[in-house]
Amino acid sequence: MASFQTKRLAGRGRCALASRTFSPGEVVLEEDAWAVVLLPDQQGLRCDYSLTCLEKLLRCPSTGLCFASKEDQKAAADLYYKAELEVAAARSKVPGANVAGAAPWCWPSHLRLAWRVLQRGAKSREQPWLNLESHWDELSESQQCDMETSAARCLDVLAASLGILDLEEAAPEARQNFQAVADLGDVARLVAAMEVNAMTVTDEELREIALGLYIHAAVFNHDEEPNCIQSFVGRRVVIRTIREVFEGEELCLAYAEIGQLSRVRHGNLWKHFHFRAFKTPQVEKRDGILSCVLAAPDWQPVEHGVGWDPDQGVLEEGAAPDALAFLKEVHHCWSEAKWQKAWKEATAGPTFRLGAGHALRLALARELMDEAVSQEQWSEALAFAREVCSCHQLIYPSGWPVVSLGWARLAKLELYHGHFDATMRCCQEALSGAPYLWEDRPVAGEEVRQMLSQARLEAQAASWQGGYQALTGPKAWNI
Fold first, then answer.
1. Could you give the 3-state DSSP secondary structure of residue 471?
2. 63 by DSSP, 3-state: which?
3. What pLDDT, on the 0 to 100 scale, is given for residue 96?
4. Containing domain of residue 453, as a range?
5. Which first-to-last residue range defines the signal peptide (predicted)?
């Protein structure tokens, strides 16, 4: 990689160090996935190969995999689809055999990804994953045993895909392909490595759609104040700098949501990636915003605030009991999808209110915005879109993609309501906040630029119309 060097540093493991100085927005790495699998809720909605979302897809009756076109189906066949068809054929011929118990397209996402990685490696007789960090020695004996069991399942299905359920009768080339990757310990470490190195692939709206293994991108470590950010164009990952990065500086990404309380994020980082993150002054500031609860009558912040997480709920550590009870009631309404009631209690309570950037307030605003859009309640959608953007500005650093995407959504609603000056301001914020974002999303970027042009023309027309009325109105005749 010409843009960075890979080195091991004490306490950091393998690191990507910048080979030169980078300006904000420069591409550090573009890489096609070694393997990708759609998440379960996206299967049947998107092409299994290109990840394109279409109403009509070509569906394979044997595997259930769907494709956008014959071209995508052929590309998938060369990479993994042909192997999975062989597995389906083997399952139909040998009912009750181990391979018939569960096919790889029915496995959990990380294991499905490990299988696709393995079968591609067998075909090419390569094992680039051997250099990936698996944290094998940090796993418990029980976890290692589970990984070895999963590895054995992968090897059983790999044998079926190569047509070598009986090694003695197998074709020499197929046998050699299998034996090139058939070490149970190595495959078990591959399964463990997927837990640590798989990247969550997102679409243009930053919705999670797939898991992918990117051999070179896996070198980039997490940092609480990352200097790079990743985006995805189909199966390809693009990593760009978000600020100036100097030669020799480590290139880092955010593995976890930074608009989340650090105690939650740090717990997940330790659980899934086996390293501990440390707070920075900026992280502490965000924590304060994300947990802020205001108390009457002066509406001052409650000491320590009250944290919240969509998975863990209300976080009780250090919280004042009465403020804690307030947030639990709001959370209960949120969990019951009573979002309107939750919003009223959260923002107009006589004793407590959520701070402007509280994590639960942001979650409610997003839910209510989406609900209003789905029901075509455009005035309500506009109000909550403004609330979302306001929260984003408080929580996220400048140049963060979710902020620019929020401005783009708000621009659509402002334009729909005929607020042309507001539309122009939102479009400008979207385009200038993270200009690199639109390079990887050309269609979405062009839509924002078209909204900006339309709003300018509409504002000019309104200005001319107003000037004409002023000259021809009743007062004009008194001149």
1. helix
2. coil
3. 52
4. 282-467
5. none
- Is 247 domain-assigned? no
pLDDT digits (tens, 9 = 90+) for 436-477: 889 888 889 999 999 999 999 999 888 776 554 443 433 332
Q: Which phi-psi region, left, alpha or beta, contains residue 32 (left: φ > 0; alpha: ψ -120 to 50)?
A: beta
Same domain, 440 and 329: yes
Full-model pTM: 0.87
> What pLDDT, on a 0 to 100 scale, did the predictor assign at position 394?
94
Tokens of 114: 């490990």
User: Which candidate, 257, 221, 231, places its Cα nearest to that of 13?
Assistant: 221
The pLDDT tens digits of the residues spanning 150-190 come to 999 999 899 888 888 665 666 788 888 888 898 999 999 99
- Does residue 193 sit in the same domain as residue 286? no
Structural domains of the chain, count? 2
Q: What is the pLDDT of residue 168?
A: 61
- Tell me, yes or no, whether 54 and 177 share the same domain: yes
Q: How confident is the model at residue 268 (pLDDT cuts 50, 70, 90)?
A: confident
Query: Within a domain: residue 421?
Result: yes
If one counts every other C-beta atom within 10 angstroms of the C-beta of residue 252, the result is 20
φ and ψ at residue 287, rounded to 5 degrees: -55, -40
Tokens of 84: 């999975």
CB atoms within 10 A of CB 449: 14
- The residue out of 197, 232, 260 marking a domain boundary is 197
Average pLDDT rounded to a whole number, residues 406-419: 96
Last-in-domain residue among 197, 213, 232: 197
Check which CATH number belongs to the domain holding 302 and give it.
Answer: 1.25.40.10
Q: Which two tokens stand for residue 295?
A: 């108390």
| Nearest C-alpha neighbor of 309 from the set 255, 353, 267 | 267
Q: Which of 378, 384, 383, 385 lies closest to 430 in space, CA to CA?
A: 385
Q: Rounded distance, CA 180 to CA 161, Å?
A: 15
Distances (CA, A) of 352 to 35, 63, 314, 344, 394: 49, 54, 15, 11, 20
The DSSP 8-state label assigned to residue 313 in this structure reads E
Determine the length of the chain: 479
How much is the average pLDDT of 77-89? 91
Residues 312 and 424 in one domain: yes
Confidence of residue 92 (pLDDT cuts 50, 70, 90): confident
> CA-CA distance, 392 to 410, in Å (whole number)?
12
- Listed residue (287, 288, 293) closest to 345, CA to CA: 293
